[in-house]
Design a protein that fits this description.
- With about 450 residues, the protein is of the alpha/beta class.
- It contains 14 helices and 15 strands.
- It folds into two domains: about 230 residues, 3-Layer(aba) Sandwich (Rossmann fold), CATH 3.40.50; about 90 residues, no CATH class.
- α7 packs across α8.
- The protein starts with a helix and ends with a strand.
- This is Caspase family protein.
């Protein structure tokens, strides 16, 4: 009886340990996040959703294994303290995330996050009353890691009007919404809407952007760039196309907020009992003693055929991740192959390359991408496309013949102008000399001889 009671107690204890191990969700090493949400502004109209948005994102990131540094309705000093703590925690991290919801300003191409105690009366207040987004990005990009920034801060801001009045003719430097920021390698910035536009605060508990983000952020094994395409599509549907989330990415690898789930099976009571107390019929003392005294004769076991281990060229080769320049160069080559004219394939992503990608997106609507920057995911999509995608565009002096541009021809006696128009050139007549004296030879005599010019 006592033995049975001890066995039952042991089984219960082991079951509890298994349950605790399965229920525990510790923070994933190397993941850290800064989450800020400002709604209750002291010197301007408060916002409805930013605090709700930030709290929900903070909870979601914590469940996904992030060490979260969150702050809601903070003034400038408290915001700076939290950023400092986040920066220290991010040292050595493999992934750093920034999420901000609240008022933001763009002045002269620089984006500013607005704390709840900010008083912005003129341009000088920007330095002392707001948080320069570039400073936070600089802290995040000091190390080689994955940096993800989500900005739900493009709401209509009455502070911009006050600032514009104080700046007078320089008010043109104040943007509507946030400005696009160039990212360092390994960084993605996602905006609630396209640069220069204003995002909607939403009529529900969350803004359209945050609502879509919460819908997809915990999808297992979903790459973050593909996730942003889902977010973009959802927001456009919610807002009838008025708001289009925008992203700028220089990520060199894949990242998913939630790793692929591995099914975990908890052993049942008989399995636990077998671990605690093996079957006496199998491991009884009498059997053990008999085995020691009269061991069974070993039966010959066939040896498996030897299989040579891979050596030399047979070893599997793991592909190294592409650098940002390699992605850009290969993307330029694909754009040229698809007829979109990216120019020289030098890995320098300039205006010509952006224009080529813009033409591709215009004629390939199935690629749900808004940012005009190369990425590994976009490169893979282009590599799967066949034939010419961008239509051939000929110069004004050429005609499209089949799949080639052929120089225009003009009727006999006509010429082709630089504008591509055939014209008849004017004929010129030679003028006779009006001075007959000059047309005659001039002669003179010297020493009895005649000399003429």
């Amino acid at each position: 009886m006592i033995g049975s009671a001890v066995l039952r107690a042991t089984i219960s204890a082991v079951a509890i340990v298994f349950a605790l191990l399965l229920a525990a969700t510790p923070a994933v090493a190397g993941r850290v996040a800064l989450v800020l949400g400002n709604a209750n502004y002291e010197h301007t109209v408060p916002l409805a959703n930013p605090r709700n948005d930030a709290e929900a994102i903070a909870d979601a990131l914590a469940e996904l294994g992030f060490e979260v540094y969150d702050g809601f309705d903070l003034g400038r000093a408290a915001t700076e303290d939290l950023i400092r703590d986040f920066s220290r925690a991010a040292s050595g991290a493999t992934t750093a995330v920034l999420f901000y919801a609240g008022h933001g300003l763009e002045v002269g191409g620089v984006n500013y996050l607005v704390p709840v105690d900010a008083q912005i009366r003129d341009e000088a207040d920007l330095k002392f009353e707001t948080i320069n987004l570039t400073d936070i990005l600089g802290l995040m990009e000091r190390e080689n890691r994955t940096n993800l920034i989500f900005l739900d801060a493009c709401r209509d801001n009455p502070m911009a009007g006050n600032l514009a009045r104080s700046m007078g003719t320089r008010s043109a430097f104040i943007g509507r919404g946030l400005a696009r920021v160039d990212t360092g390698v390994g960084t993605m910035i996602a905006y609630a809407t396209q640069p220069g536009n204003v995002a909607l605060d939403g009529v529900g508990r969350h803004s359209p952007f945050t609502s879509a983000l919460l819908e997809h952020i915990a999808t297992p094994a979903l790459d973050v760039e593909i996730m942003m395409r889902h977010v973009r599509r959802d927001v456009m549907e919610q807002t009838a196309g008025q708001q289009v989330p925008w992203s700028s990415s220089s990520l060199t690898g894949s990242f998913a907020f939630k790793l692929q789930e591995v099914p975990q099976v908890m052993p049942d009571a008989p399995q636990i009992a077998a671990l605690v107390s093996p079957d006496p019929d199998v491991t009884s003392r009498s059997d053990l003693a008999a085995t020691v005294q009269d061991p069974p004769s070993p039966e010959p076991t066939p040896l498996p055929l030897a299989v040579p281990s891979p050596v030399g060229d047979d070893l599997p080769v793991l592909a190294a991740p592409l650098s940002a320049k390699e992605i850009a160069q290969r993307s330029q080559a694909e754009l040229n192959r698809l007829g979109c004219d990216a120019g020289v394939e030098d890995g320098i992503w300039g205006r010509k390359s952006q224009g080529a990608l813009e033409r591709l997106l215009e004629h390939a609507p199935e690629i749900a991408q808004v940012a005009l920057d190369p990425s590994e995911g976009l490169l893979q999509r282009m590599e799967q496309m066949e034939g010419r995608i961008c239509p051939l565009v000929c110069a004004v002096t050429e005609n499209l013949v089949g799949d080639a541009c052929v120089r225009k021809t003009c009727p006999t006696g006509q010429r082709l102008s630089s504008r591509g128009v055939c014209y008849t050139p004017q004929t010129t007549t030679s003028r006779s000399s009006s001075n007959p004296a000059r047309s005659q030879s001039s002669c003179f005599q010297f020493n009895g001889q005649t000399f003429c010019n």
